[in-house]
Design goal:
The structure is a homotetramer of 331-residue chains. Chain A is of the alpha+beta class. Chain A has two domains: 171 residues, Beta-lactamase, CATH 3.40.710; 132 residues, Beta-lactamase. Helix content of chain A is 46%, strand content 10%. Chain A contains 14 helices and nine strands. In chain A, helix 6 crosses helix 10 and helix 8 crosses helix 10. Chains in contact: A-B, A-C, B-D, C-D.
């Protein structure tokens, strides 16, 4: 492995960075053996456990891509950030924060227990299943198609094409995710749902089944790094306040019940999904010496072998290494 | 109230900022009426519910002080950040993270329940009581005096004098805080304590009783904002890695079970104490237009009237207003 | 109120007992004002809050009936005892005890939390909703009609006619009981259900909607008091081991999270339902002096005004008074 | 093993019963290998894992003793029944039930969690540690000696001599039982303790260290079976209401979180302790055919090898076998 003690001051060309990242991807790929591919739905089980890829997109067109960059995978829980953003754009931040809390939970992502334990029974945050299902219920529209329309349009605006919904995964989720159905009915009974339960669950299962690549996610990360503006066109795609809120939420709650550790060790807003993707956001930072992507960048990794918390084993390690080498932490 | 739409570009003198902050302190002081002074120990009950003060110290000597700046108060839970820093300096970061988790809990600061619910029974993080008591047990030394020596020296190095321990508060804590004693014995039984239980509790009660002013806390905040270095002497007081870790921890867990909301609305690392103090850290930031304290600053507020979570009602609002006006969020 | 210090030794005729019981019903009726009629489904809300009635049937034909004895009401949770009995008859006691625990929970009847907290996630007992839904899934048959057939036949054998299912209540339950649906899907996911989820829930909602009178319930109680045999025909209707098990379960878990208090204050196996019915079983007992119904009896009260635990306020008090006066406790 | 299908009708002499019980003790002794001797305090660890003994005392002097009957062991949690009885005699039943609930908990005996989860934070019942410590605080007296005086006198009255306190075990408990200390301080903070915390804990540790034999316990069981009266002298030793309440409590909460299963499978009031003792109470019962000890009896087993719930593995099986053979169940 190329040692990290590079002098970034001079000659830090895209080629050099590419070489480093290629090296790191090779090195961390072995950690894919430590995790397990998600098995709760058949479609996820077919993922290639050895895969590891990363895409980094900077402010001024600099791109680093390495490893298995072309795999298409379903976005899964990463969609929770996007549906929350869309709901905030439709309903306003105050309305949303009234309905869903933004506190880290300390519990597993699919916990029902914590709903029952808290007097208010309000979902802890939009990035656990209970909160995300509540958010899906708040999207405008009567059908899941109507509800997802603005989310898909937002994605199209960012990544340049309308991403497909993987119907096989969607069917699979719909038929197998009984825990989510349990959560949905629980929320229905406690009065948190704004829409029909079946439409809500359908929306949730569909949004999880949107198919993306790490290039797509890195580009979304770039927009968030730039506070919602497209750095090329300078156009606002997500309102600044919403983009900021999304990043705060990702930092405190984005990596399931390992969010605290990710904040401590990596220190950048991120959100992972059970298919093995992680989106990460590096905002512009102030340092005494030049470092790669100091103007900010969007990053995404794909590595379907997961640890016990549900995060990509190799992906987390790769991001941690890069964050340390390039001093990406926001703290 | 002076409106926030100031043009910071030119003529942003210390006097102007002072005027704004004075204004905001007056405005938010009325929110002291909404909270209640902590009553669980007699000494805290005597605090003046109307008090509100703020101190801000920037990188190059700029200082803003407003409101009730001269009140001396006990540091309480803010000491948890300091003892964690000292323990990391003594034992190393890896050792500490092995013994105490760094996950937000979603539970109240004095919860025993979450220890019992989790298979490992490992304290969630160093900023809840269970974690902080564990940290106190890890400080070097056989007696509470020995254990606190390095912490007090660190403070002396930062604030220029050795802060006193308020003996009345200490006695009061020691005699009344039965919940902490329960937590201590629980930890003893599960094997997390590295020192004698009574020495550990004594250390914990004493560190909570260290007397400070908001100027002291703001100066500590400044050192953290500058990644552990004193900006005047450029000397490292806290190792960079430890300072970074402390800030990550403050952001995810610093404001009790309102940490997520504070991250979302204010967006800077902070830690509050039950006596009404809050320390907050604004690291250097990148913006397109000049803004106050862009090189970073330490901040502290004092407002003993607390909300139901244990945070200063007026203090939180004042910090939120300033963070919004000056765009301090790290996200 | 007629004082209880009667000399039971001589002349303890049915007329005398009737007079006492009438008196006690009048006296305790005022406690109906302290409770509230269940409101979670419209059909239950229409019950008359003032109603209070009791039926007692002894071994040799002695019957005491007093108050509002002719009201027809849905059996609700009392059906949980019956479906458990039928499932034990079909599958055997060992199979059942393997799938559902028989431990009191300390939690509310409709808790999901306790499923998640326990490593095995096995329903605590057949008399909380999670356990009862599991039991319904184990009844033989592919449809809810097939599943309920043996239960209705058992009832017919005991009470002499096939009880109707109140379709209005059934529809109402099916449409409004989202918590039960949540529990059902949770159980489905953890693998405890033996049948299709919708068939299981349908069975559960239907069995809760069986319409009975207190005479019917008292007669069921009599069979249980007689260890499963009809005292008139001496024919075994429920196997002795199953009847015994049902009584043990009723004593430890029958009165929701007030079961311990009911055991302490009243001391006989009982099961209540949210419509206001309570079935109670007084097995034969040994005393030094003659007392009413010493050979055992079945009892049932109806009083739809419920306390916060879900038990009939006046009904519980009336049973407690009778149990004390006649020394019914099994302890 | 002698088969259980004995004809009890004729010739059921003490010798015959003795032979059966000897046989059963031999048979069930092998189950001692499945458990483990309690190890949390050194003194308990020294118990002989292979030991198994039983003592049964009937109403009219009939005694069956078999196996390791002469081992002296500390009474441990069985003392919780006795201190509750004494506290009821001193304070009255209503006062006690106001301070401590009588609900089964579903939680382990040393749980703190359930205190925190319930709004009232009232100890669930006098037979879990939290409840028992609360009860110890309510015993009359300023010192642990004064508090234990009436309990020891009651024991003396029942068993004919004043039982010793095993000082080694007491010291050991006092020094090692940090969880109980944690519970004690927790209760102190929530205001449930009536006495000084150290006196309370001292009382609790001492009462657990009272040394008994199974003959002693069987005799206590006999008094409870006879509703508090000594069957020889016909004198009331424990008020009838208190004896009844104690039996109800033992049935619903006496066997830790296996109480429900014990009620279902064995069906008699019992209380176990971590040293391997179990006291069991068989009240008089009505049956169609003569059965041993139909007038009631007290029973006690000793078998220090414990299962995961803290109950004697062999002891529970032996009691279950006897209860089945002799049809002891109160249901």
């Amino acid at each position: 492995m190329v040692q990290g003690a590079a002098n970034w001051n001079t000659g830090m060309t895209q080629e050099w960075l590419q070489e480093y990242v290629d090296d790191w991807v090779s090195f961390y790929r072995k950690h894919t053996a430590e995790g397990e591919v998600a098995s709760y739905i058949p479609a996820l089980k077919e993922a290639n456990q050895d895969h590891l890829g990363i895409s980094i997109i900077g402010m001024h067109g600099m791109k680093i891509r390495s490893g298995d960059v072309d795999v298409r995978f379903t976005i899964q829980s990463i969609s929770k950030v996007l549906s929350f953003i869309v709901a905030c754009m439709q309903r306003g931040v105050s309305y949303m924060l009234d309905k869903v809390d933004v506190e880290p939970t300390g519990e597993a992502f699919n916990s029902i227990m914590h709903l029952e334990m808290k007097p208010l029974k309000k979902p802890f945050n939009p990035l656990v299943n209970a909160g995300a299902i509540t958010v899906s219920s708040m999207l405008d529209g009567e059908t899941s198609e109507e509800k997802l329309q603005p989310l898909l349009s937002l994605l199209e605006e960012i990544i340049g094409h309308r991403p497909p919904i993987n119907l096989e995964v969607y069917e699979s989720e719909r038929e197998s995710s009984m825990r989510n159905r349990a959560i949905g009915y629980y929320l229905l009974e406690t009065g948190f749902l704004d829409s029909d339960i079946e439409v809500t669950l359908d929306t949730y299962f569909k949004q999880c089944s949107i198919e993306v690549t790490i290039d797509d996610l890195a580009r979304i990360g770039l927009i968030l790094a730039n506070d919602g503006k497209d750095p090329d066109s300078d156009q606002e795609i997500i309102p600044r306040q919403v983009a900021r809120l999304a990043k705060a939420l990702m930092l405190t709650c984005g990596m399931y019940d390992a969010s605290g550790k990710f904040a401590a060790y990596v220190g950048i807003p991120a959100k992972s999904g059970v298919s093995g993707g992680i989106i990460a956001v590096s905002p512009p930072r102030v340092r005494n010496e030049p470092l790669p992507f100091m103007d900010g960048c969007g990053m995404a990794v794909y590595g379907p072998a997961l640890d016990s918390k549900g995060n990509s084993t190799a992906g987390i390690r790769l991001l941690r290494h890069i964050a340390t080498q390039w001093d990406l932490s926001i703290f």
